[in-house]
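Example for tutorial group B:
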């Protein structure tokens, strides 16, 4: 607390009295990468106007930051860095691509004491790819710090190599939960003096697959440890963790708009698996669809359904996770531009659908959890327009339907014989082209 107050004073002092700043000569020797001139969205540009130099970081760390091509802190970095430096727990809602790793790596590296040869910080990530990406960044920004030892350890690699590596000095470990727990239990990774633990993509880390491991890992950490938690979504699992005793009065950061089901009328129709296509056909002919997105639960089912829809005489695009990212982006872009009326896909959107013209979303296969449901159906509040969500429910989905309704505190009603157009057709009078006119010759 007192440290944090003193710290804020320091920041104030430095910004009020610019001439106290050190000479800027060191900047001349920086090896800066070419400037990134791509267009950036407001989640990385709407800042308070702080500078990295405002945080009293070690000059060597600043050099690494600037050489990464990071010129100014992003919003999540502005929120996180001073708080993390003060030692307080953080609970942040932020998506990736917004400077999240810098938000925790900068304060973490600043606080590593090189005179001590034990593990001082642990970053938990859900996947090997993310572990490698984060360790790459930390190695780059700590390059001038002279000897911060960063180690990435994940499942699927040789355990012996990791054990040998831990015999030497390691200051920062970036790990997936299973592997680090293994090393801790073997007594190889000693984490009792860890002062900072980060959970990146915490929604995944606290999912059923991992949560027990995470609890276990935390039990081995030292008493005064600080936890920084970053998550794009806040499902029940994350909320449970928040109210547990692991976090101590966390500083909350929320840089994302909530997804909402407001304005979306949700229906279900009981069907058997074999009736699904017929049911979809009926929906197509009865509803006034401007654009629709239809979700299936697997790549194969997406391809099959897209074929069926085309055979029925409706235009459709499809995308799924096994398609090349570039191609996927193009299809999505074309769909967004209205080149096609229907899109069949698997769960690809990490955020809700932000296409105004989509007024109907159909769960051809009903999702298993509430988070997925929300991502498929929900819209961010700022769009605030009407829409229809229709769920095809087989007997196997009954339980999930009830459970998702409960978790999201929402109402999914049986589909009525006819649906009032004012619930989902944007402008009365300005009627979208009827589905039939989109039929292929
Ligand atoms: C961003 O985060 C989401 C959810 O946490 C994840 O599914 C996705 O793969 C991540 N994307 C990248 C590019 O890391
Ligand atoms: C997808 O849905 C079909 C039909 O409901 C079901 O048979 C299949 O097991 C589901 N697959 C997955 C991966 O959930
Ligand atoms: C209907 O879709 C078209 C093409 O995507 C779009 O240009 C138009 O604005 C949409 N109309 C409404 C009312 O959303
Ligand atoms: Mg994320």
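The residue assignment follows.
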């Amino acid at each position: 607390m007192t440290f944090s107050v003193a710290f804020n004073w320091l920041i104030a002092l430095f910004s009020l009295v610019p001439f106290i700043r050190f000479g800027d000569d060191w900047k001349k020797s920086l090896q800066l990468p070419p400037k990134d001139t791509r267009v950036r969205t407001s989640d990385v540009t709407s800042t308070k106007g702080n500078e990295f130099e405002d945080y009293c970081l070690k000059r060597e760390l600043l050099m690494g930051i600037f050489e990464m091509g990071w010129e100014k802190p992003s919003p999540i970095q502005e929120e996180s860095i001073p708080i993390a430096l003060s030692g307080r727990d953080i609970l942040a809602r932020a998506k990736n691509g917004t400077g999240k790793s810098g938000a925790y790596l900068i304060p973490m590296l600043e606080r590593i004491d090189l005179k001590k040869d034990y593990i001082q910080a642990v970053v938990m990530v859900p996947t090997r790819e993310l572990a490698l990406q984060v360790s790459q960044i930390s190695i780059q920004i700590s390059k001038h710090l002279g000897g911060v030892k960063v180690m990435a350890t994940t499942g699927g690699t040789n355990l012996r190599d990791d054990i040998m590596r831990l015999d030497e000095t390691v200051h920062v470990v970036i790990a997936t939960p299973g592997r680090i727990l293994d090393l801790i239990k073997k007594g190889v990774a000693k984490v009792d003096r860890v002062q900072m633990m980060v959970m990146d993509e915490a929604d995944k880390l606290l999912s059923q697959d991992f949560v027990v491991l995470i609890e276990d890992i935390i039990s081995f950490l030292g008493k005064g440890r600080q936890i920084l938690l970053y998550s794009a979504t806040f499902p029940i699992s994350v909320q449970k963790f928040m109210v547990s005793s692991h976090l101590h009065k966390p500083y909350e950061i929320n840089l994302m708009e909530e997804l909402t089901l407001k304005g979306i009328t949700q229906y279900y129709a009981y069907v058997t698996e074999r009736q699904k296509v017929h049911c979809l056909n009926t929906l197509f002919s009865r509803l006034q669809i401007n654009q629709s997105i239809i979700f299936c639960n697997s790549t194969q089912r997406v391809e099959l359904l897209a074929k069926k829809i085309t055979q029925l005489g409706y235009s459709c695009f499809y995308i799924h996770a096994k398609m090349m990212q570039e191609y996927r982006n193009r299809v999505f872009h074309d769909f967004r531009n209205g080149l096609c009326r229907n899109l069949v896909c698997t769960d690809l959107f990490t955020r809700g659908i932000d296409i105004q013209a989509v007024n109907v979303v159909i769960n051809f296969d009903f999702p298993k959890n509430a988070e997925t449901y929300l991502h498929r159906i929900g819209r961010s509040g700022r769009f605030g327009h009407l829409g229809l969500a229709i769920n095809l429910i087989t007997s196997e989905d009954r339980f999930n339907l009830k459970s998702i309704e409960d978790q999201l505190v929402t109402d999914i009603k049986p589909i009525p014989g006819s649906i009032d157009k004012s619930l989902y057709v944007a402008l009365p009078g300005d009627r979208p082209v009827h589905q039939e006119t989109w039929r292929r010759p």
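DSSP finds 16 helices and 16 strands in the chain. Compare this with the pattern of hydrophobic and polar residues in the output above.
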